[in-house]
Specification:
Distance between the termini: 51 Å
Number of domains: 1
Domain CN hydrolase: 71-342
Subunit structure: Homodimer, homotetramer, homooctamer; can also form higher homooligomers.
Order of helices and strands: HHEHEEHEHEEEEEHEHEEEEEHHH
Largest sheet: 8 strands, mixed
InterPro entries: Aliph_Amidase/BUP (IPR050345), C-N_Hydrolase (IPR003010), C-N_Hydrolase_sf (IPR036526)
Organism: Oryzias melastigma
Enzyme class: hydrolase
Radius of gyration: 21 Å
Helix content: 25-40%
Bound molecules: N-(aminocarbonyl)-beta-alanine
Strand content: 15-25%
Number of strands: 15
Number of helices: 10
CATH superfamily: Carbon-nitrogen hydrolase
Shape: globular
């Protein structure tokens, strides 16, 4: 059942009376996000290419001194294309071509910044703990084929591309889970390496790579200041916070996560980060169930098995005022196009003032003590 269940929004819409639905949506999702009109040819192309295309916009109030700062983001979720035992290069090329056709539709929709899912060029094979052939999917962030592919697309469509890959740093013999940020000029702006490596469920990523060393880099693009908090980093509120302290206006969260593990948390974490940090957040998850030739165990008493999933998609965008778009499907490839007026960040900040009321200097001092050897927690007992 859980794999076929299309989406929470669809279920609410088909079962609730109209008036009640509006109230349920207001309480659950915040101020309603307005649907964005897209060109008919883009909708047709998406339907022909068999992926879901949804579009929404977040408006801000008209200001007297600043013009609106509208930017359009695109979130891509997709299944792997070939079986996981197909030749490595065939698998990569097939995914390039699938995502390439989605990016083409994003360009028809006027997308300025597009972000792909975590390690988008490969199966999420880290569950297996086998090194071969999975490490062969790793590529140079600066010069790999996938980066070259994205550079062409970025230039062609005048689009910033966030390309999360398995990175190989040849010189030092290191692998990383990293997002390459490619400017709309086609130049590699830089990369952001995954800060927190999971040790939960079948996410055996610590077998392959270490915690990232790029800190909380923010990238100034023509379309806004962006940052990338890769997957498991979304469980760490301070991780979002540090990107925001460096000035991020939009924080992308390319992910790969499965229903049994994280689905009840999914709709909360990125949305909470948008609220707490007065910024936009974009949560992206892959779709599908991935099957591996060799059985692997999950360390939970279950028999060894071949399948990892169900990756439940449900990619969405959250705004600083607590509102959010509906999610993409739990089962289908999709593109979510969202227009946002970045002026909303400062407007909400002026209203709620979390950055001003936060006692950060005090937290920093106390936290330094709390993680020290001689720390005594402040607990008063009778
Ligand atoms: N890819 C990844 O870090 N997944 C961990 C599980 C989760 O964060 O939901």
């Amino acid at each position: 059942m859980s794999c076929e269940f299309e989406s929470l929004e669809k279920s609410l819409e088909s079962h609730l009376p109209e008036a009640e639905l509006a109230e349920v949506k207001r309480i659950l999702f915040g101020k309603e996000t307005v649907k964005l009109d897209l060109p008919a040819f883009a909708l047709e192309a998406a339907s022909e290419r068999d992926f879901e295309l949804k579009a929404f916009k977040f408006d801000a109030s008209q200001e007297q001194l600043r013009p609106p700062r509208r930017t359009r983001v695109g979130l891509v979720q997709h299944k792997i294309v070939l079986p996981t035992d197909a030749p490595v290069l065939d698998q990569i090329n097939a995914i390039h071509s699938r995502v390439g056709e989605i990016v083409e539709v994003a360009a028809m929709c006027g997308v300025n910044i597009i972000c792909f899912q975590e390690t988008w060029t490969m199966p999420f094979a880290f569950c297996t703990r086998e090194k071969e052939p999975w490490t062969e999917f790793a590529e140079s962030a600066e010069e790999g084929n996938t980066t070259r592919f994205c550079q062409e697309l970025a230039k062609k469509y005048n689009m910033v591309i966030i390309s999360p890959i398995l990175e190989r740093e040849e010189l030092h013999g290191k692998l990383w889970n990293a997002a390459v940020v490619i400017s709309n000029s086609g130049n590699v702006l830089g990369k952001s390496r995954k800060n927190h490596i999971p040790r939960v469920g079948d996410f055996n990523e610590s077998t392959y790579y270490m915690e990232g060393d790029t800190g909380h880099t923010v990238f100034q693009t023509q379309f806004g200041r962006i940052a990338v908090n890769i997957c498991y980093g979304r469980h760490h509120p301070l991780n979002w916070f540090m990107f925001s302290m460096n000035g991020a206006e939009i924080i992308f969260n390319p992910s790969a996560t499965v229903g049994g593990l994280s689905e009840p948390m999914w709709s909360i974490e990125a949305r909470n980060a948008a609220i707490a940090n007065h910024c936009f957040t974009c949560a992206i998850n892959r779709v599908g169930t991935e099957t591996f030739k060799n059985e692997f165990t999950s360390g939970d008493g279950r028999k060894a098995h071949h399948e990892f999933g169900h990756f439940y998609g449900s990619s969405y965008v959250a705004a600083p005022d607590g509102s959010r778009t509906p999610g993409l499907s739990r089962t289908r490839d999709g593109l979510l196009v969202v227009e946002m007026d970045l002026n909303l960040n400062r407007q909400v900040s002026d209203k709620w003032s979390f950055k001003m009321t936060g006692r950060y200097a005090e937290y920093a001092e106390k936290l330094t003590k709390a993680v020290g050897q001689d720390f005594k927690p402040k607990i008063i007992k009778e």
